[in-house]
Automatic annotation (TrEMBL):
It is an enzyme of class 4 (lyase). It catalyses: a peptidoglycan chain = a peptidoglycan chain with N-acetyl-1,6-anhydromuramyl-[peptide] at the reducing end + a peptidoglycan chain with N-acetylglucosamine at the non-reducing end. GO terms for cellular component: plasma membrane. The gene is mltG. This is Endolytic murein transglycosylase. It comes from Tistlia consotensis USBA 355. The record marks 203 as: Important for catalytic activity. Functions as a peptidoglycan terminase that cleaves nascent peptidoglycan strands endolytically to terminate their elongation.
Amino acid sequence: MRRALTILLVLLALAGVGLYGGYRWALQQYGRPGPLAQETRVVIRPGSGLESIARELEAAGVIANADYFRIAAKATDQARHLQAGEYAFPAGISLKGTLDLLESGKTVVHRLTIPEGLTSEEIVALLSQAEGLTGEIETVPPEGSLLPETYHYHWGDSRESLIERMRAGFDKELEALWPQRAEGLPFKTPEEAVVLASIVEKETGVAGERPLVASVFINRLEKGMPLQSDPTVVYALTDGKGPLGRALTRADWQVDSPYNTYRNKGLPPGPIANPGRASLAAVLNPATSRYLYFVADGSGGHAFAASLAEHNRNVAKWRRIKRQTAQ
C-alpha cells in the first residue's frame, strides 16, 4: 500500500491534477493493462541502467510511457532490483506486472535437444546455431564424450558451459553403468565400451533393438570376426564432420582407415559418435543370442540371422522391398 501511495504522490505532481481525480488516475496508470498486443520477448542486457531499460521496454511496446516506468520504479524502490536477462512479457501486462517480473528474475528458459548418435562436430554445429548462447567453442571435444540429452539454459549462458555439462553428464552415466556390466564381455575398459556403444547407436534407431544389435557385435568379437559395420566406414570417409550424403559402395568398404571394420578386426581406435545411455547399457548388458548378422527389414527395424545362408535370404528379401519401393 505504501508503494501505491508513493506512486500516487509522484504521479500527481507530474500530472498536476486534483487530489481525488489524480488518485484514481495514478492507480489506473500503475495497474491498468499495458499496450502490448501479444507476448513479446525482450533482452535486458547486463549493466543496463533504469533509463536504458525504460527505453527498451517502450520501444518494444511493453510499456506506454518510459517516464511513468522510471517514476514507478523509483517510487517502489524496485529500480535497484531489476535483473538482466531475457523476459517473456505477456500481452497486456501492466506497469506493476512489468516491474514485478523484472524484479523476480524469472527469465525465459531455452531448450536444446542433442539427439543420440551425433558426432562431436555435429554437436558443436548445433551449439553454434543455438539462440541466446554466447562465446565460441575453441576445441571440438573428443568423440564419445558428450551426453545426448535435452538441456535447459538461459540467454547469455556460454556454449562452453553447455559442453561441460554434456561432458559431466556422460561421465556420470558411464561411471554408474560400468560396475553393472555383464561378466565375460570381450572388452576390458569403459573406453572400449563407449566405442562399441557408438557403433550400436549408429546402427539402429529402434530402442528395443539395441541389446540385440549389441549381441551381434559381441558375438563377432568373441569369434574374431570383423564387425563389418557400415557406420564405421562412413566415419572413415567423413572424419565425423557430417553425413556422407550418399549410399555406401563396395569400393567404400576398401577404404584404408583404422575405422574401417570391414578391413580391420576388433574395435576401431575410437568412438564414431556420441552414444546415449541406452546404447551404453546395451553393450554392457547385451541380449543373449547366437546372431552374427543383421540387415534392414523394410519396417525401420532389422532382420537377424545366426548363419550366412539365413542372412543372405534376409538380404535378398530387403533388396526386393527396395525395388518395390522404388517403382
